Amino acid sequence: MSRIPTPVSIDAAPEASKVSLEAVNKLLGTVPNMFRLIGNSPQTLEGYLGLNSALASGSNRRANA
Fold first, then answer.
1. Can you count the helices (H) and strands (E) in the chain?
2. pTM to 2 decimals?
3. Quick count: other Cβ atoms within 10 Å of Cβ 65?
4. How far lies 34's CA from each of 9, 25, 30, 60, 63, in Å?
5. I want to staple 7 with a disulfide (CB 3.0 to 4.6 A). Which of 12, 27, 28, 38 is the partner?
6. What is the number of other CB atoms lying within 10 angstroms of the CB of residue 52?
7. Which residues lie below 8 Å from residue 19, measured CB to CB, with a gap of 6+?
8. Per-residue pLDDT band at 63 (split at 50, 70, 90)
9. How far is CA 57 from the centre of its chain?
């Protein structure tokens, strides 16, 4: 079974992912492995961060009722 390479640092990530990974690092104080892994695909990283942002800013009316 082949393995998916995980960049060991932000500098080793694809150029298009570096800005997003630096933002994650600033927010969390570290870059979790999951973010480094999906950072191999800048489009996937941007999509995940967008989804995460949308879910974090939303509300669950049922939970607040």
1. 4, 0
2. 0.78
3. 5
4. 13, 13, 11, 26, 28
5. 12
6. 12
7. none
8. low
9. 16
Q: What's the token pair of residue 58?
A: 């939303």
**Band of the pLDDT at 1, cuts 50, 70, 90?**
low
Domain ranges for the chain, please list them: 10-58
Give the span between the Cα atoms of 35 and 44, in whole angstroms. 10
Share of the chain above pLDDT 70, in %: 89
d(CA 23, CA 28): 9
4 token code pair: 């998916």
Q: Are 20 and 39 in contact (CB under 8 A)?
A: yes
Structure-token pair, residue 62? 């049922």
